[in-house]
Amino acid sequence: MSSTLIETKKLVRRFKSGDEHIEVLRGVDFCINVGDTASIQGESGCGKSTLLNLMAGLDQADEGGIFWNSEEISRHSNQVLAIKRSSLIGMVFQSYYLVPEICALENVILGGRISGNTDNLAERSKSLLQRVGLGSRMSSLPSTLSGGERQRVAIARAMISDPKVLLADEPTGNLDEATGDSIMDMLQELCEEKQVSLILVTHSANYAARMGRSWVLRKGILEKNNGQMIE
Amino acid sequence: MPWYLYIALRHLFPQGRRFPVFTLMSLTGVILGVATLIVVISVFNGFGYEIRSKIADTFGDLRVVNGGLLGDPDGLAEILESKESVDTAIPFAQGIVMVLYKNKPLAPIVEGIDVRSDREVQKYGNYLLDGSMDEFDDDSILVSSGLAGQLGLSVGDEVEMYTPLMMLKLLESDGSDVLLPRLVRVGGIFQTGWQRVDENTVISTLRLMQDLYNLGEGAHGIRIELKPGFETEEEGREITESLGRPYYAQTWMDANGDYLSIIKLEKRMMFFLLFIIVIVASFSIMSSLLTFVIRKTREIGLFAAMGATPRQLAACFCLQGMIIGVAGTLLGIGLGRTLLYFRNDITSTLSSLLSVSDSMNQIYGFAYLPARVQSGDLIVISLLSILIATLAGLVPAYQASKMNPVEALRSE
């Protein structure tokens, strides 16, 4: 099996705005291998999240190809894609997206149930929550948790399905600097421990610099980061 | 438990929170629809059962006739009584007479019953509103409450009876004959609760009928009561076959088929009309779920991002409709049965509150509101209600499954 987990080739994505077609991605080539970490930076609205969603198979490219484990995904139905996604990809969002009706532990368990990775699920979920420092808040509803705690639950939920690659879309975007730092530390540690590749979309040059490879999305083109400050 | 069922349950019954208004309103609609259906259909069943048992009581389970006159009714009755299924077989005669009282004529149906049978005597004794069966002999008649009311008859009054035979004789004579009516006393006034009988019926002794209709020792048929546990229709077929032509065993259902089919039709119509309540409730479920899908758009996007398939997403919302259907149906059955249990207290309370007289007894001859819960009705009501509620969840489910995950995640 190839060591490349996700690869995009000449990816183009256009959006219609009135009568105009805006080309957000203009032939993006990108790949992430087993154990790699990569950051994608760029101005707000430049298409970072669009690229992430395309890599996750949640959106369809207008041109170009997306490959999971070297397999083109556009030929798969949504049903098959969903099943493949659940075992390959974990996602963490800026806004956490926890299910408000269920407690922290159940949110993590839910991640395992949806992915179908249900072996010893309750125990694994508890241990993951302990690992992210929420051992004492397992039965708390999301509404009673702080922003940092919610993001920890969201990370645990993403990791419970043992994904090969974690797509993190500005996971610290809603958090203060100190909390953001601790979340990033924890995220990196977890990915290293579990040998999970990490693609981090961030505005922070500091967090981007922690990744093995750093990219910038500028005018629809993905370029290697030369260290310039991104707004 | 599959995750989509778990989430469906949690959406409807969240942990540690107030009971959601959406769930409450959707459940209430189904509960009320199912309870109303069960109450009304069971009362219809009760009415039907009471009326059927009164018909069967007055008609007998079967009547053996030959289309004319039975020359030896006692002999035939003996043959029939020897059958394992037959409890009693009693000759009867039936016809029309003209009753004249204070120059007011009416033409009721008259049925001659064999007073040698204790059962026949006791049966009409139970229906007597006034008078006594001790007073019932070959010179007296029992009149139905409707007939007594129309003619203004009381027990002890004397009425004149004319038969078609008398009229025929008068016509055949050259005008020299004088038509002499038969004078009979009103021995009792009865009410069976079956309007058809109570409206216009006279009960006489078989001997009086034989005399009036010039039947000799003959009768028009044999009324049969079956032993418990024997099927009326099956026994009717068996007796018809065993006696051979021209004898024919008519069941009480055949004889009153038109009336019974109206009762059935009424029940069916009521079922469909009231089922509209459940359909309306399903629209409430659908609109609530549609709103819910919109409220949960980001969650749907999240589930898709986590690897949920479109079918699982659809199942999550379709199951919510089904769960509401199942819970609403179970609670509706509970409420319906409770209302049925207290139905007489409720009707008497309503009657006294609204100062309405006890019309039930006056019109239907029932001292209480009859009701019979039939398991078949419960099964049909439950299955249809659950099906309708599940179908109501299909539209929102389809909407959820077709949602673009990216747009869903971006939604505010």
What would you note in describing this structure?
The complex is a heterodimer of chains A (231) and B (412). By secondary structure, chain A is α/β, with parallel strands linked by helices. Chain A is 34% helix and 29% strand. Chain B is built from 17 helices and 12 strands. Chain B has helices at 3-12, 21-59, 73-81, 118-127, 145-151, 164-172, 195-199, 206-212, 232-243, 252-255, 257-295, 297-305, 310-341, 343-353, 359-364, 375-401, 405-410, and strands at 62-65, 86-96, 98-101, 104-106, 109-113, 128-131, 140-144, 158-162, 182-190, 201-205, 221-226, 248-251. The chains are: A alpha/beta (231), B alpha+beta (412). Chains A and B meet through helix 2 and helix 3 of A and helix 1, helix 12, helix 13 and helix 17 of B.
Shape of chain B: elongated
Helix-strand string of chain A: EEEHEEHEHHHEHEHEE
> Structural class of the secondary elements of chain A?
alpha/beta
Task: Tell me the series of helices and strands of chain B, N- to C-terminal.
Answer: HHEHEEEEHEEHEHEHEHEHEHHHHHHHH
Low-confidence stretches of chain B: none
The N- to C-terminal Cα distance of chain A equals 39 Å
* Main interface: chain pair and counts: A-B, 32 and 28 residues
Q: What does the radius of gyration of chain B come to?
A: 32 Å
Q: Major sheet of chain A: order of its strands?
A: 6-7-8-3-9-10
Largest beta-sheet details of chain A: 6 strands, mixed
Number of helices of chain B: 17
* Percent in strands of chain A: 25-35%
- Amount of helix of chain B: 55-70%
Low-confidence stretches of chain A: none
Query: How would you classify the quaternary structure?
Result: heterodimer
Please specify the SSE layout and strand pairing:
The complex is a heterodimer of chains A (231) and B (412).
Chain A: E1 4-17, E2 20-33, E3 37-42, H1 48-55, E4 63-68, E5 71-72, H2 78-88, E6 89-92, H3 104-115, H4 121-131, H5 147-159, E7 165-169, H6 177-193, E8 197-201, H7 205-210, E9 213-218, E10 221-224
Parallel strand pairs in A: 3-8, 3-9, 6-7, 7-8
Antiparallel strand pairs in A: 1-2, 1-4, 4-5, 9-10
Chain B: H1 3-12, H2 21-59, E1 62-65, H3 73-81, E2 86-96, E3 98-101, E4 104-106, E5 109-113, H4 118-127, E6 128-131, E7 140-144, H5 145-151, E8 158-162, H6 164-172, E9 182-190, H7 195-199, E10 201-205, H8 206-212, E11 221-226, H9 232-243, E12 248-251, H10 252-255, H11 257-295, H12 297-305, H13 310-341, H14 343-353, H15 359-364, H16 375-401, H17 405-410
Parallel strand pairs in B: 5-10, 7-9
Antiparallel strand pairs in B: 1-11, 1-12, 2-5, 2-11, 3-4, 3-8, 6-9, 7-10, 8-9
